[in-house]
Amino acid sequence: MTGGAGLPEPPPDGGQTDVGHADVAGGWVPHDIPSAAALLEAVREFLESDVMPVTEGRVRFHARVAANVVAMVARELLLGPGLAAAHEARLEALGVGSDAELAAAIRSGGLDARVDEVRAAVRATVADKLAVANPGYLRSEPDATEVAPDS
Fold first, then answer.
1. How far is 91 from 87, CA to CA, in rounded Å?
2. How far is 85 from 78, CA to CA, in rounded Å?
3. Percentage above 70 pLDDT, the chain
4. What residues does 22 pair with on adjacent strands?
5. CA angle, corner 10, sides to 12 and 27, nearest 5?
């Protein structure tokens, strides 16, 4: 069931959860529902269903851009902590502490013996970024036009 502006109504128990834990709506205690992600989704829906159909040209284009930005921010709120932890784990597995250290190690040849691991880590990072920025660009299998790994 939804409340105003397409937002979910609070659960019968008021959505109470333990401090420091995510609730079922994706929010963080002590914040009540709707969560930040749910609010952003409502704004995106408003822009796409109420603003864009009645505008044209520049205003319609900017409404589409705003809807895309709002969707991206919502995905970052939902996925960001997990993606950040995975990225840190990949860097740690390669023995570096940051993207800058990884780039320096690649430039210096310090990771040449681990090129498959580096390639996998970089690809995973790009996939994580796309999951937030534009998940439509992710595809399950490479196509025939993709450059071969050793090219």
1. 6
2. 13
3. 72
4. 28
5. 125
Q: Does the pTM exceed 0.70? A: no
- The structure tokens listed for 104 are 């320096």
pLDDT tens, 111-129?
Answer: 999 999 999 999 999 999 9
Residues 6+ apart with CB under 8 A from 44: 67, 70, 71, 74
DSSP annotation of 26 reads S
Distance of CA 10 to CAs 7, 29, 34, 66, 122, Å? 9, 14, 8, 27, 41
Q: Locate 66 and state its tokens.
A: 């705003």
**Angle 53-59-65 (CA atoms, 0-180°, nearest 5)?**
90
| 34 cis-preceded (ω within 30 degrees of 0) | yes
Burial of 29 per CB tally in 10 Å (0-12, 13-18, 19+): middle
